[in-house]
Predict the 3D structure of the following.
Amino acid sequence: MDVNRIAAIVLRQYYLMRGNLSRVLSPVVWVTIDILLWGFITKYLNTVTSAGFNFVPALLGAVLLWDFFSRVMHGVTMAFLEDVWSRNFLNIFASPLSISEYLSGLVLTAIATSSVGLIVMLVLATTIFGLAFFAYGLMLVPFLFVLFLFGIALGIVGCTVVLRLGPASEWFVWPIPALISPFAGVFYPISTLPQWMQYLSYVLPPSYVFEGMRTIVWGGAVSGPRLLGGGCLAVFYILLAYWFFLHTYQHAFRTGLIARYSAESMS
Amino acid sequence: MKQSLQSPAMTRSKVLSVMELRKVYGDTVAVDGISFDVGSNEIVGLLGPNGAGKTTTINMILGVLAPTSGTIHIEDVNIATDRCRALERTNFAAVYAPLPGNLSVYQNLRIFGLLYGVKGLSERIEVLLKHFDLATFRDVKCGVLSSGEQTRVGLTKALLNDPRLLLLDEPTASLDPATARDVRTKIRRFAAQGAGGVLWTSHNMYEVQEVCDRVLFLSHGKILLEGDPKTLPREHGKETLEELFITVAREPLALELG
């Protein structure tokens, strides 16, 4: 892999963000709204429920982690969609850039954009609502890591869907986190779900994170092997997503779809 | 009268070698087993009516479309087995592939310079900006440039890596006559001075006659004719290259059998 070519993909996103403030503000504004909304809900719940249980780490912490996951996923797909919207496929794929370099560039971009969102959320949640995020202890690191890996995997899947079905299919991609959230047990224990939904939860890495988070909130100890299992699942999904993208790219390469993304007609 | 494909390029070092290239979509044969070369310092025109297979051929050479069969070598590098190395020595400009309009001229050139591994990139960008009279548009977003200016930016990007093989798909289509002549001069200079060769498509037969050392006439995915654009029309009983083009487009069988 060539570092310069990966840097070119990251640099493109940097130029875009620097040139248009809305690209920076958009993710910041949405996470701010989420944290404020859920922050006040948790404050209200703390006043109307029996004393002794603090909703802040259970609900606001869950919102924060879930938003981080969504930002990672959208960070990958947004960077890809910039090439779709500017009809840049032919220029990009006719260059010496390899698929692994291209995806690496998208992932690095997602790291940068999701980190900005995470910092904003942490500042708001801790300063305004008193979320003691580090109450999760060292487990915070694997929590974020598992969510990050799964966000990357789903981001690559989102890119693949758009590559295969065309630019209009981006509307299938945006709601993916919302579709997953009921199964991932973001706000409630997995045991709340009917059995058939629980089977799906077991194959979703975020469910291990949110179960672990609630265990800590209730004063228990997180099962290391279970969380490790969630991490391994996330790695497996990244490999699967990469294979899926590569397979779809090969299909586009055989059928001429790459060229048609730019050229309206082929003669 | 399909002519011999042995060409003057055989005496030069080859920058492009296409062998038995074929592309089939279902029952449709888009490119039907064509073979040709482009030599260094040579400008080859790829001509033919719409649907003849020109862009399909160019897309396969650019590595964005898989051939059904056949091979493509850029210099001695097989694009099927060593794609990155082959594309490092190639570049292209096409009216249907403008650079992203939401980035400035300089930003686009910097990004593509990195993608193509250009050494001394900053200096190279400045030289080319002056060469194509784009220095004043350095920090202007490509999307607000006129179509002619965008075409010049595309050509600047195409020359960034000083490619061995330069593919130009109707490079002067949106240019005024004066700028088009200027671009033709620059491309001729590129071919004459360096070690690169050019594959050029155009529907402007005057331009082809002026620029190309050799032309290939494509019809229904096959090369029907090949030769010097200045002498080819008379060899086939036509006054001009445009007349010959129209015959190829309307009555390709007459030429094949003739």
In short: Chain A has one domain: 3-260. Chain A touches chain B through 37 residues (CB under 8 Å). Residues 1 and 98 of chain A are 8 Å apart (CA to CA). Chain A has a mean pLDDT of 88.
